[in-house]
Amino acid sequence: MDKSDLILVGRVAGAFGVKGDVRITSYTAEPLALLDYKTLLREDGAPALTLTSGRPDKAGVVARAREVETREQAEALRGLKLYIPRDVLPEPEEDEFYVTDLIGLAVETPDGAPLGRIRSVQDFGAGDLLEVQPPEGASWWLPFTREAVPEVRIAEGKVIGVKPEETE
């Protein structure tokens, strides 16, 4: 399986309790959606964890996995990134995007001048922000709003961005 066919959905944060439960930080809109996917994959596409049950936790999910029987086994998985095949996800609605599709896109002004590339997408509580890495210098944040990003052209590999100091 090609890495581009995988979507990062979580990361093992460590053990929970003494019976081998695994704490997973979820990157999905609904953390318990991880349970619907059942088998979560490693970065190379190999099976990582088969979730058999779970419950919500402050940062994601506390789950039981078929492959984990002890606290030590769960703790040894800390940091493991968990993926699902892209084809199990529904197509995004109009004006919705998967974060993984945005990372790496070029950012251009409405006139076509290059501003940089999207390095990451973050939400610090006030809405999504695109971290833009210019060709030189420090990265900067672009609000992911219709005013600041009037167009997303995934097929063309770019977004149209208006730097905050240029908005009215």
Q: What's the tally of helices?
A: 3
- The value of Rg in angstroms is 19 Å
SSE string, helices as H and strands as E: EEHEEEHEHEEEEEE
CATH class of the largest domain: Mainly Beta
Descriptive labels:
single chain, Elongation Factor Tu (Ef-tu), domain 3, 2 domains, 3 helices, elongated
Task: Provide a descriptive summary of the structure in words.
The protein has helices at 33-37, 71-76, 99-102, and strands spanning 6-16, 21-26, 39-41, 47-57, 60-65, 81-85, 106-108, 114-123, 128-133, 140-143, 151-153, 158-160. It has 168 residues and is mainly beta. It has two domains: 3-88, Elongation Factor Tu (Ef-tu), domain 3 (Beta Barrel); 99-166, SH3 type barrels (Roll), CATH 2.30.30.240. The chain has a six-stranded antiparallel β-sheet. The protein has a six-stranded mixed β-sheet with strand order 10-9-8-7-12-11, with no helix packed on it. The longest helix is centred in the middle third of the chain and has 6 residues, at 71-76. It is elongated. The mean pLDDT is 90.
What does the secondary structure layout of this molecule look like, with pairings?
Elements: E1 6-16, E2 21-26, H1 33-37, E3 39-41, E4 47-57, E5 60-65, H2 71-76, E6 81-85, H3 99-102, E7 106-108, E8 114-123, E9 128-133, E10 140-143, E11 151-153, E12 158-160
Parallel strand pairs: 7-12
Antiparallel strand pairs: 1-2, 1-6, 2-5, 3-4, 4-5, 7-8, 8-9, 9-10, 11-12
